[in-house]
Amino acid sequence: MAIFNRSVSKAAISPEPTKAAAAGGFYNSVNNGGANMVGVYYSYIEGDARNRAMSVPTVSRARDLMASVIGCMNLKMYNEIWNGNEMEKLPIAPRTWLRRIDPTVPNSFLLAWLFDDLFFYGRGFLYITSRTADGYPASFTRLPAAMVQTLDQSGPVWFAPSKQIMFQGGELDPNDVVQFLSPIQGIVYQSTQAVATALQLEAARFRNSTSAIPAGILRQTGGEPLSAQELADLAAAFNAARATNQTAALNEFVTYTETLTSPDKMLLIDSAEFQAMEMARLCNIPPYLAGVSVGSYSYQSSAEARMDLWTFGVRAYADCIAGTLSQNNVLPNGTYVEFDVQQYLTGEYAIGDYREDNSEQQTQNEVGSQI
After folding, report:
1. CA-based Rg of the chain, rounded to a whole angstrom?
2. Most CB atoms within 10 A, among 96, 139, 220, 249?
3. Where are the alpha helices (DSSP H) in 19-100?
4. For residues 80-101, b (16+ Cβ closer than 10 Å) or e, as one string?
5. Model-level pTM?
């Protein structure tokens, strides 16, 4: 986004009052933060809390599953009319930004990362980079939720769109920010101990997996008693020798006794399964979708698996995104946005291109046969 330099003649704590982004224009700021830092991608971060949670395999799997659903679905616009019995949806031609919300990236990328913000932080932000002649947005760019602070709300539960939005140390005009508020609290604020437990468990599994020998005890059976430091040095030397050789040598005063620990116990398999189940609960997805064994529970088809993922995990976030994009600060009153969920649930999003290619090939074959 272009940055407009403007001389400053007086000290200022916050930007001077200014109009919202004009038709085809951009919002301006007098300081080095705020709107001037929008699009300066080298300074963008996703947040340490989010990155720690993503290092838990089940959380990563849940996030990727739901982000793939949000990213694969198309958006469409409609009006509602009364047909005498009920409100009926009337499809209308979409605005130009509907297929490319951010002109620099495809919707599959932008919507997936907007969901990422909702999933981890409970809210997301799109900055309006230009407007059409009627004053409505023409293009947007995403602001990472981890970098946005709201001075009028401390969180972690967000009650309404903020009127004091700070980005990179500068204030943004709230009229130029579309704020998405998730109905589900961000997981970095929920069950922090469960995430920390999962990380500690993974660290313990890693330590056990690096052991070159079975766990055991070195016991002195005779000779002059060794001090605590000498015993520690003996154990360290024994481990070092076993890490590089297949055979260890001990004198008649020392014996080695293996503990009765099986590989599954050393890798804490049962604990890992339980913690994976806990993470699936935290992420609101059916555990079997994350590869967690759930006993007798099973599904009959991939269609049912897609339905479960949509119903239990994705729908709340999809409705949040569509509902926010339908508000009057984005679209004229009475115009709405929704995801084409039927295309996802029927699997047509995955075979649409194949059908088009097949149809084209069939047409070419028919023309060839006529010739």
Report:
1. 29
2. 139
3. 48-54, 57-72
4. eeeeeeeeeeeeeeebebbeeb
5. 0.73
pLDDT tens, residue by residue, 218-266? 777 777 777 888 778 877 877 777 666 666 677 777 777 766 665 556 6
Distance CA 238, CA 247 (A): 10
- What one-character DSSP code corresponds to residue 6? -
- The span from the CA of 330 to the CA of 198, in Å, is 41
From the number of C-beta atoms within 10 Å of its C-beta (0-12, 13-18, 19+), residue 251 rates as exposed
Residue type, 128: I
User: What is the token pair recorded at 128?
Assistant: 């309006």
The amino acid sitting at 166 is M
In the chain, which ranges are continuous DSSP H helix?
Answer: 48-54, 57-72, 107-121, 192-209, 228-244, 263-266, 269-283, 302-308, 315-325, 341-345, 348-370
- Tokens standing for residue 116: 């990422």
